Amino acid sequence: MRIRLTPRETSFYDLFASSASNLVTGSKLLLELLGADVAARAEIADRMRAAEHAGDEFTHAIFHQLNSSFITPFDREDIYALASSLDDIMDFMEEAVDLTVLYEVESLPKGVEQQIEVLARAAELTAAAMPNLRTMDNLTEYWIEVNRLENQADQIHRKLLARLFSGEYEAIEVLKLKQIVDVLEEAADAFEHVANTVETIAVKES
Amino acid sequence: MRIRLTPRETSFYDLFASSASNLVTGSKLLLELLGADVAARAEIADRMRAAEHAGDEFTHAIFHQLNSSFITPFDREDIYALASSLDDIMDFMEEAVDLTVLYEVESLPKGVEQQIEVLARAAELTAAAMPNLRTMDNLTEYWIEVNRLENQADQIHRKLLARLFSGEYEAIEVLKLKQIVDVLEEAADAFEHVANTVETIAVKES
Amino acid sequence: MRIRLTPRETSFYDLFASSASNLVTGSKLLLELLGADVAARAEIADRMRAAEHAGDEFTHAIFHQLNSSFITPFDREDIYALASSLDDIMDFMEEAVDLTVLYEVESLPKGVEQQIEVLARAAELTAAAMPNLRTMDNLTEYWIEVNRLENQADQIHRKLLARLFSGEYEAIEVLKLKQIVDVLEEAADAFEHVANTVETIAVKES
């Protein structure tokens, strides 16, 4: 145990808000991907990569702040978990776009647009909730709604897999598409991790 | 750090015991699944979903207790890890049943019954061990045996994959069945996580 | 909270060094695997299994030391994370060899040798870095380089998947090979986890 200075510990809130806002950017790029032709996809992938790099900067700033602060607004493990899960979401979003380009996917299967709409809604809710960590107001509705969205995403994902396995697609195409829909499902799971961490923080404060 | 009241911290033991007993219920449903026709499978899936919801209640009660208690019988991170791993096991069991129904699997490959028997044995051992957390008696045998079972599950799983890839099955069927045997393997891994956490707790107490 | 004796807490350094050196052994066995015929592969698998058992011993010794020490050279969670990630790497390496034998893979696809070269380089860097945990010297270059290697591994992995999905391979063969290249990618990720934990430790010390 050693003494840590706390020059700017309040900026945790700002960093979490920036990290979550960046996910709204990411989910909008996923929505763009749905209707994009091959040329447009490459350009979307570039912008997604830039967004992911921006996310890395926020995550790194949070970790640096965490490691150099003696007093933190919440338990250290909760700050770590929150930053990591926010970072994971962006990584999964970026991977979905990159794989779509890399595998030269003809068209994403019906149901992916539902997955992405759920992610976009979860991103908006998460970005709106982060500033409320200061006051702990209105967080209950946020985490109930994100948990509901994750259950919905899970149902959409399982139906998508059933469709992929229905015989409509060639085996190799199934493998490509499965990896993309799986990574989008991982993004939905990671939104729930964020919400569960926020719940943990809120219960400790109450 | 803030003061937390501890109205009922001893009930951690009861909650862990209930959560583990619920896994015995889950593993019995998996055993029923083996011989079930399509109609029976749907009904088993309903009961599995109910068991999983019951498990969620125990997990949530443990987290709530953890977050609202100032003094806990073990280190907080160990309680969290134990509750999470118990919850994971039920989720994996439920997913295995749900995917079998959803993918309209004709018949599960030979070897799955061995996977499920190992899970059933691990569930019984885990349910028997939880009450012993109070006294720390007889835990060594439990975790040695669960680690042995996990190694056995790992061997069964790898042989199952080799069978799936042997050319006996169509590629799409391989994909469906692989996902089911993989999720059963994840359940076996999660039993080992539970045992490792119990070992950690016991060593700290010794 | 209870008092723990610390008869030999300094040996954490030796145990981490031994665990990391063992990964160099593992990565050399992976390099041998590349050019091996079927008979040689079985023998390599035996030696890899022995290396994995040796790794388990180091991991277990670290956990035992951690649970029985009152004072530790770094935060307990960092020691736990470091030992676990080192152990994970060996497990992934062993799995890659075992699956190659079990699936009777004709030949590993072009690009796997690049994956393994990255792992071998990461293992050397990790083994060289562990003794520096005593003095915290020269760790910055280590983790920057391992992060760079992980990005490189990620690119190699994605290109390998694109090759597997290009139509050159039968679907079942794709499934086998994908599992092997995925587990090698997991090993690369785990090297990054080790480096990130070392970074966390170093920042706290600075």
From TrEMBL, chains A, B, C:
Organism ancestry: Bacteria, Bacillati, Actinomycetota, Actinomycetes, Kitasatosporales
Pfam families assigned: PhoU_div (PF01865)
Family: Belongs to the UPF0111 family.
Full protein name: DUF47 domain-containing protein
PANTHER family, per database record: UPF0111 PROTEIN YKAA (PTHR37298)
Superkingdom in the source lineage: Bacteria
Organism: Streptacidiphilus pinicola
